[in-house]
Design a protein that fits this description.
The protein has 5 helices and 6 strands. The chain is of the alpha/beta class. It has one domain: Trna Endonuclease, Chain: A, domain 1, CATH 3.40.1350.
Amino acid sequence: MSNKKMTEDFVKNSVIKWLSRNGWGHFEFDELHTHGVDIRARNVRYSRYFFIEAKGESINRSGLEVAFIYSLGQIITRMKDSGLTRNYYGLALPANSAKIALRRISWQVAKKLLLYIFSVSADGKVIQYSWREIKDRQTISAGS
C-alpha cells in the first residue's frame, strides 16, 4: 500500500461486504464519531447479532497499538447480555493492528466473550479470526 492510510470507512465497508457474503444481513452502522458500535448485523438464518468496532489505520507503530486498545475498550464497554440471543462481538482492524490484537488478546478471553478479530488488508480482503484461530496462532508462536 502507498503512504495513504486505510480509513475507518474502508475497514467498515470491507467487513460489511464480508459479513453479507457469509450469512449476515440487516445491517445498521453508525457514522464516524457517534455513540454505539460501528456495525450491527443480524444473522440471516438465526436470531444472533454481531456487534463490531472498527478502526482505521495509523501511520506510526504506537498508533497501531492505540487503535487496538481503544477498539477493545469500546467493544467491551458495549457488551450486553440480552439473555435471549447469543451475541457475537468483533474488532475490525487494518491488518497491522489486527496482528497486535491477535498477539495480545488471549484466546481464553476471546472464547469467553465470543470476540472475533477481523483483519482487513489494503485490497479489502477480510480474514475473520475466532478464538480457535487465535489459540492456534498463539500456540505456534509460543512454540517458536
